[in-house]
Sequence to fold (932 residues):
Amino acid sequence: MRHALCVMSFAAACFVASTLRAQSPPVHLQTVTVDCWTNTPPKFCNNAALDPSEWDFSTINLNTPWSTTCTYTDPLPQASAVLAIQAIPWAQYCGDDFTTHASYATRLDGENGDIPAVASDDGFHCACDDIVGSFVNYTGKNYHPGDANTLDLFGDGNAAYSMRLYRVDLSILYTDAAPKYSVQVGFETPGTAPALFTKVTTSAPLTLQVPLGAVFTVGLQKTTALTLIPTPLNAIFGAGVSTVQPAVPLMPTATVMPVVQTLFADHSLVQVDNDDVSATKRFIAVHFGTTPITMTPVTSADDPQRQINVEVILPTDLGTSEHSFSDGSNDLDLDDYVSNVAHNTGIPPQYLKGQVHQEEYLGRYLVADNWRYEPVGSDLEDVSGGARRAYTDADFSPFRLDDAIGVTLHPGVQDELDPRNVFFLRRVDPATGSVVDRRISDADRGVTAREIWDDNDSVTGNGHIRMNFSLFASQAVLASINAPNSTVLDFVAQTPTASSSGLMQVMWDEAVDDDLWSGVTIPGSTNPVHEPKYVFDRRDYINIGGGSLQIGANKDVQDWRGGTVTKFPSLDAFEAAINLMMRYYNFKWHEGPVHYGDRVVTYSRSAGPAVPAVPFP
Amino acid sequence: MKRWIAFHALLIMAASSALAASAESVVSRFFPPALTVDNLNKPVPIKSRHYTFVLGDLNHDGTQLICAVYWNERDGAVSVLSPVGDGSLIATVSPADMPGRSGKVQLLDFDNDGRPEIVVTMDQLRGPSAAWIYKWTGAALQLMGPTDPEGRDAYSSDLADPTFLDVDGSGSISVIDHSWGRGPCVQPCDEEQVFVQYRLFQLVNGNFKPSGDIDCFKQYLRGTGAPQAQTDSFSATDPAAPRQLVVVNGERDGSARASSARVVLNGQSVVGSSSFNQKVGVIRLPVALAANNTLTVTIDGKPGATVTVLLLPSK
Fold:
């Protein structure tokens, strides 16, 4: 018995190791003792010191054909699949000094053992401590888990003497027999292999959490006891009715909701894939909320439908850098800000962040008071000149310089007059009588577009920045500006309204559009307030309904040319629609063949939502 | 946001004649249905539906037709209508890509055949305007190019902020396109990075085809006071390549011509005042360029005269 135990330990380990696979589902080991062989009383070697002395046995004469059968009920779950069975018949050959062993046959549920079992004498002739097991293997192909099974032992009668048969120990390797179904989600990041996650699913819907903007595939896989390897199942995918969260405040501290324009209003996911039967289906997350997706396998009627509830959540990060920006007093979470606007509009956040990048101006990529004055394209052609909105348009005239100074634009108040102070001008210093090249101050009056043009278009050094206004002007306009003694720009520069502001470089023309901005709510004021300064992306302004990001994104929505469709045949098709929408923000912006939409999409590649650590909570 | 109504009403009034008065009702009546809903299929408010138009003898048969451009503050369309009787719509196109906040339409005879072409310009809130040049076939509008390679239909134009010039004195009008973009700041970040491109398009078999990039394109206006030299500098990417200097005197219609002007290239006088008079429309001559060049133009004569200088690849 000592030998047998030793051998059994080793053999069981090998047995398990050689049979187990790395893949799921897990393999279980169950030991079963089959013992129909008793001889009571007396027990063998009664009063002997060794444990085997307690074992019952049956004596079997080997010199005539013999058989013995034991039927037992297996303890495995009925829904199990047996992978392999190893039997150790414990026996003792009662031979003599010259006849040391006898072999016999075994059969488990009609399946013959791979080799004969052996009963050994070992020279002790059925002494008390000499019980030896041998190993016999079965595939278990006829086995009945959780039910009655029959073990037959038999001999042909050609051996001498007898043997004692004590019992048979079975080691059964099995798995849960029912196929396992699992959902695999793959998060796609351009340029890298998809990040894959798998979760076993049951008939109960499985929750999958994906970050807003995530491009991901879902698919159903099946793992059987035989293959042990998950196999994708071709299926019909159906996205059910979404539960979309209402528009959200742009920051945790915000108390006023801005007006929002929305794409894909009733869908938290947009399918970016065809409707063909397939192993996976690709989606992009466009709104916070939940969408059920059913997957109905077409492979077999036995393969059940499964459902996942895809919950779209706030991304932890967008891209790997530039997650915050400063408004001068506070560091603001850019990614959350962008994501909240993205949810409100349905524009995936990576594209909005890419657009913020595209609106970079003089390295002021992430500056709340990013600001640019347009002396020609806006002021000459539309605000002071052209339609003369500074004089004819009630949305513009309240901020007309210099009339508005002290009324709506107050010297010394941040963001009212002072944005223009980034520019230089040359004026006579009354104290010295000399022309001084200096920055504009809030105290200056009558600052003309000409003064700004002349001292900021192409002047370098001493803190000057070449604005290159002239490169944007048509040659006819430029000729009129450059003509000797030209008076074309001799108007007071309408810097508050002939300009673009904030992360999205929103023009005042856009800010006064009620569909794009509802203004800010100020204590004591019954009506929303529209003032240019509130377009800057400072926290205090965002809190009360200001900031450029939502306005600019609303403009994007207005420029959407994809209609009301909520399904695209491919991610490329979806992105082409996004690209076109973005292009309309600055339709003829070009750098060679690269236009505005191309550039936004390129920048979006660095702003994708971070892959969640635990998508299946 | 309501301003375009008043603005264009004024435009229309200014252009009105007895015929145009009825023409406006025709134009108004045929507002393109495609522009009455926005991109999300919401109705476009009446206040956002605009149009302007011109009348012209498109068929060169003495009959006036109406060329109208419509827009809804986002997209545009162009139509040719007949003012006869109650008026009728002859042809219309609503290009997939004709965005803009306001539209303009003008007639120009690009190919000098007596039948004017239709130029539609859509101003953009940001960046240069976009333009479309249509040939009127007598029954339909055809884009004469250049077409936008990324456009969504055959009416997508690739023209931005165009200038129309007779650069070879033939009476045929060429197009100079001006596109630009801005780039990230380059340290020490003391200059806004701007990419500017001027392209020349000329008619080939009735369509505008690229005729190369332009090294230099400058317009000069004679200001008040004594004549003054105006100097610009420019670089040439391939200075060894042969170039031609084109000097265009005044406007296409012969107005605003200078009686005398001088052009100096890299310190060398290339066009003297004796070459100029008010009958000279275009001067062309071969020149050599350096990598970095200086151009000086002095316009004499009456204020208001214009001179345009281009440096083009030699053909």
